[in-house]
């Protein structure tokens, strides 16, 4: 009961500022870019081969990798601003058992990230579907594969948001948290892969493509587990830090 | 008014260190229900840190603080037991005052109608739907106070609640806190505005550099000062200082004496053969008392160090 109250409170935090609208605007912009690519883009030979098959179109609308990164930024900002604006003080006064408050916050942010992922994938698929009639191709992605793309994006959104929330909780500063997410998701993976090529299959973008059905580097169950590890490790570190630190 | 269950605040040997720096040093005091207790100290004396330790927002190196016999984290319903205002700007600037309170109400299971009630109580109804980032300092203070009052708690712990309030706001705050104490509530208010505390508090707790330097009823503390007029002020000061009093020159032939009953001052002067031309109780202003308490401790610490 108490947990439900806390999650409701955290969801109200997320929806009572303009931040979600800013992220929805980013998702709409990305969908628009995809639609523009369908209308105006060509392959090197000038053809539209990149949208010629169902697999090609599924790759185009597979939003999970983007969802992971965007939700990561969303989670980082949502968590870090709590500390920057000291709103964590009344939160911890309302629920002094901090792990409960923080887990509820992670839950709400994860839910928000999932919604962003789902909306991002939905907008992208819709934009591509709307743009395709301007070409010689129709929308070829089957309902089953489209469902998989949407589900993958939802899952990646949840995982990315929890990862970001963990980093935001650790860093407690919006600028630092955003930098941390960019480092972890965009800068570190290629460097790590260069040092140890065997890790390539376990990087977030690869896992997201596996979940979306446009990659087969690992089995889907392993991709789900690995993505969960990406989310849980920073979240656990954030939770431990919150329990140990004074609130200021 | 419904009587409130009593919740004394008891602080026992609370100590907090950041590295080698001791911020709160073996601090013990009791805040009694039914009274307004002012918490005084210079900037950086450890008031806010002490309050944070009381509320489990900061960990103590040793000692403990209880509210109604329980640590804050063990209270079954903290929001309905303790109303606290620690950070006056603990809100998101892009969120309305009303939503800020609704978030707290959601978290604590307080009905949302109470949000509108408390906004009315603190005079923020008209600004409730505006973003808190556009509030004046006084409005922010009132929003913080509204958050503290949301659960109608019997205990209030407020850090500098009068900051930025206009005279009418200060008067309203004073009336509200006095009413809470009159109903049996425990009210603990830190401030550096001595005049405000002088008008508000029944008791005061004074700390400096993390240490307790005075505690008691404000009336008693103000009365515990004597004025002595004698032509041998230096010798009398030496005699009284050795006996544990705190003396302070007050003109060429007068002394202000603290921490010694007036009868004992007379007896010791007589025993030392010092003729007194005047020996009278002197109700010092809170400002005078505060400055002498903090100055005395500084001197004591300098002597201890050397």
Task: Describe this entry's structure for a reader.
The complex is a heterodimer of chains A (248) and B (306). Chain A is mostly helical. Chain A is 77% helix and 0% strand. Chain A has one domain (2-244). Chain A has ten helices and no strands. Chain B is built from eleven helices and 13 strands. The longest helix of chain B has 20 residues, at 286-305. Residues 299-306 of chain B have low confidence and may be disordered. Chain B has two domains: 9-216, Rossmann fold, CATH 3.40.50.300; 224-305, 2-Layer Sandwich (Alpha-Beta Plaits). With 306 residues, chain B is of the alpha/beta class. Classes of the chains: A mainly alpha (248), B alpha/beta (306). Chain A binds chain B through residues 1-2, 5-6, 8-9, 12-13, 16-19, 81, 85-87, 89-97, 246-248, and chain B through 52, 55-59, 72-73, 75, 78-79, 82, 84, 86-87, 89-96, 99-100, 102-104, 106-109, 147.
Protein traits:
heterodimer, A: about 250 residues, mainly alpha, 10 helices, about 75% helix, B: about 300 residues, alpha/beta, Rossmann fold, Alpha-Beta Plaits, 4-stranded antiparallel sheet, about 40% helix, disordered C terminus
* Low-confidence segments of chain B: 299-306
Number of strands of chain A: 0
Q: Classify the helix fraction of chain B into a percent range.
A: 25-40%
Strand content of chain A: under 5%
Per CATH, the superfamily of the largest domain in chain B is P-loop containing nucleotide triphosphate hydrolases
What is the molecular shape of chain A? globular
Largest sheet features of chain B = 6 strands, mixed
């Amino acid at each position: 009961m108490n947990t439900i109250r806390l999650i409701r409170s955290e969801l109200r935090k997320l929806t009572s500022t303009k931040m979600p609208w800013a992220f929805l605007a980013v998702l709409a912009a990305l969908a628009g870019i995809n639609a523009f690519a369908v209308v105006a883009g060509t392959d090197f030979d000038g053809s539209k081969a990149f949208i010629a098959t169902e697999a090609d179109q599924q790759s185009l609308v597979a939003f999970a990798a983007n969802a992971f990164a965007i939700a990561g930024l969303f989670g980082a900002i949502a968590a870090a601003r709590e500390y920057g604006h000291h709103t964590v003080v009344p939160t911890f006064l309302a629920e002094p058992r901090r792990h409960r408050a923080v887990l509820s916050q992670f839950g709400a942010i994860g839910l928000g990230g999932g919604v962003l992922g789902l909306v991002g994938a939905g907008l992208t698929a819709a934009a591509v579907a709307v743009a395709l009639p301007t070409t010689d191709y129709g929308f070829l992605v089957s309902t089953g594969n489209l469902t998989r793309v949407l589900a993958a994006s939802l899952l990646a959104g949840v995982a990315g948001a929890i990862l970001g929330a963990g980093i935001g909780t650790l860093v407690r500063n919006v600028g630092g948290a955003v930098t941390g997410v960019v480092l972890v998701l965009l800068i570190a993976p290629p460097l790590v892969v260069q040092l140890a090529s065997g890790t390539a299959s376990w990087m977030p973008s690869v896992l997201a493509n596996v979940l979306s059905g446009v990659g087969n580097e690992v089995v889907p169950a392993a991709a789900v587990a690995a993505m969960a590890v990406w989310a849980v490790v920073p979240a656990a570190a954030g939770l431990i830090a919150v329990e140990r630190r004074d609130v200021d | 008014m419904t009587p409130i269950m009593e919740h004394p605040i008891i602080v026992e040997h609370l100590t907090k260190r950041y590295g080698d720096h001791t911020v709160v040093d073996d601090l013990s005091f009791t805040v009694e229900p039914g009274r307004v207790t002012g918490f005084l100290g210079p900037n950086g004396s450890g008031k806010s840190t002490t309050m944070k330790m009381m509320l489990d927002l900061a960990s103590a190196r040793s000692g403990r603080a209880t509210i109604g016999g329980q640590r804050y984290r063990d209270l079954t319903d903290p929001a309905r037991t303790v109303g606290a205002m620690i950070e006056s700007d603990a809100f998101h600037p892009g969120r309305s005052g009303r939503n800020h309170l609704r978030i707290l109400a959601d978290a604590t299971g307080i009905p949302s109608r109470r949000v509108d009630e408390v906004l009315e109580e603190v005079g923020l109804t008209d600004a409730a739907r505006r973003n808190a980032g556009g509030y004046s300092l006084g409005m922010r203070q009132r929003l913080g106070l509204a958050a503290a009052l949301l659960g109608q708690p019997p205990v209030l712990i407020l850090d500098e609640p009068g900051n930025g309030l206009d005279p009418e706001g200060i008067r309203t705050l004073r009336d509200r806190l006095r009413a809470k104490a009159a109903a049996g509530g425990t009210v603990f208010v830190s401030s550096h505005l001595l005049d405000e505390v002088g008008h508000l508090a029944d008791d005061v707790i004074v700390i400096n550099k993390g240490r307790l330097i005075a505690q008691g009823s404000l009336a008693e503390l103000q009365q515990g000062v004597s004025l002595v007029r004698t032509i041998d002020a230096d010798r009398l000061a030496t005699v009284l200082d050795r006996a544990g009093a705190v003396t302070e020159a007050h003109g060429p032939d007068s002394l202000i004496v603290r921490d010694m009953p007036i009868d004992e001052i007379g007896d010791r002067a007589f025993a030392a053969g010092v003729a007194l031309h005047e020996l009278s109780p002197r109700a010092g202003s809170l400002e005078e008392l505060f400055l002498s308490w903090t100055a005395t401790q500084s001197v004591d610490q300098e002597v201890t160090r050397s």
